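Support request, please re-run this one:
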Amino acid sequence: MTAINDVVDLSRDGEIAVITVNSPPVNALSAPVRDGIAQGVASAIADAEVKAIVLICAGRTFIAGADITEFGKPPRGVSLHDMIDVIESATKPVIAAIHGTALGGGLETALGAHYRVAVPSAKLGLPEVKLGLLPGAGGTQRLPRVVGAEAALKMVTSGNPIGAKTALESGLVDELVDEADLRGGAIAFARKVVAENLPLKKIRDRSVSADPALFAEFRAANARKFRGFDAPEANIKCIEAAVSLPFEEGMKRERELFMGLMTGTQSAAQRHIFFAERQAARIKDLPEGTKPRAVKSVGVIGAGTMGGGISMNFLSAGVPVTIVETSREALDRGVGVMRRNYEASAAKGALKPDAVEANMARLTPALDLQALADCDLIIEAVFEDMAVKKDIFGKLDRIAKPGAILATNTSYLDVDEIASATARPQDVVGLHFFSPANVMKLLEVVRGAKTAPDVLATAMSLAKAIGKVPVVAGVCFGFIGNRMLRARQDQAQALILEGAMPWDVDRVLYDFGFPMGPFQMSDLAGLDIGWSAATSKGESIRDRLCEAGKRGQKTGSGFYDYDEKRNRTPSKVAEEIILAKSAELGIARRQISDTEILERCLYPMINEGAKILEEGIAQRPSDIDVAWIYGYGFPVYRGGPMFYGDTAGLRTVVEGLGKYEKAQGEAFKPAALLIGLAGEGKSFRDLN
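Re-run finished. Output below.
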């Protein structure tokens, strides 16, 4: 064995040369890896005794992609494009041996080889679109020449990998080899290529054709999914180029489109979120060596929408759950909804049928809190009432075993006050799930003043185990996400009194990239959440809509009217109520521009985020971005509210806030942190 460099070596098995990449953790295509592979191929070609070359990787995976830490830095070493050319132009057959994942540049490398073998568990894909990019080393030109234009379109625009069996059927993989002996299987395949004198199959020399209608139909079918994103369309254009242009011209088109994305704001935003999500899992001041507590059983109080959804997360992860309700009717209803949700997932193919029964078998319904005595973690998910929550935690203090973690799912309330109802505040933490809790990825982990480090570590570890993206928040009203949401909602309400209509505000935020605007969201959730007919005095627009029986989609009308298919049109009644309220308040309505709507909805959010940072409620600006991307539908290609503030320019944001402060008052007073950063020419990213 000869070491080419620190991460690549070259060995011989008879007439077969074996290039081995060993660059933990995922063999990313760093400059040393690229240089080592290129040198390894050249050395093997120069060796007269070598008849074929196997490219294989040590560790748990084949090359899992580019080294994205090199993005934006001066190039060094052999480029990925040139390395693949070295492989493809080799005068001896090169066989890529794939296990784990071959993703992005890893699959592009394998496509440069003359043959590919894989173990059955391998996954292959081009996920660059998820970073706002496209495969930039020939992936969009070689892939359709192997699997066809339609399959390539699906792969490059979804970014989702395919399994080895599907890859074999499509021709992307030439042979499946023994899971336990990839090296032996790859060498045996190489010997067969030599013995049978099989040709050097260069994918670049193949052609691909497709019905021109394919592309228009594909765009139309995915228009809603791709809305607002630049990368999917650029990937589609590359596949079109593969069909209509010679290989080298297609490569030029791919490069042009790649550079346009790489230097654009959208990819920068998506790459920011990629790193921010991983950074959010790190707790700055957690003592070194802190170990999570063992959680082998979970208790959930409340079998409503939130309690049921929370329970499903743990059941799906194989953790037994005891769920408690106050009445048999409520308990049976909640358990029934959980079963139906699992069955619906199975019907869609998202869950194996036997998993429905396996998950439900882990659930123990109960009507007495005493049933939670042996649980390692107990999560309270009842309605937002401090007195009720404190009463529950007082009871749990007497029931729960020593060392059990007591968590509240509160969306707004003071976790420290809830913890004060117990003699063990160190065991209390906020676990704020988002509805629907079995679907939404964000989990706000709310650290109380006395929350123990190992409780915090346990919460973060559990979040990962159940497929959530955790963000640590301090204690304040609304924590991170809802506190900022309130700032936006206040302005949305003010705007419709001053001259805009709900559908104007919704349209502007939808065009910005949100899945829906605030008033459409209110109709969907139900305008009567937290509203009481007995105490309503018609003080707000919402009160008057509810009093008129217009409580959102469930009643067929709210801010909008809905037909039987839930298609919406602006509500005349809502418009009359809004106009009447403006008149009562003596507000002279005026024309409000889309620019003002957007600035007044977004700038106060950015400003509130700065205050959250000042107060230490969030660890870093990027954590705030993660919370808004995964919990509130902020468009990922905008990077979150704090990244968007950087994109707009903090001086621009401060000037805008100042302008609106003069017209609207204190709500727009810029935070000291925001003023300071803008004055120094800095951005939020300097604080990450």
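The CA atoms of residues 455 and 675 lie 36 Å apart. The chain has a mean pLDDT of 95.
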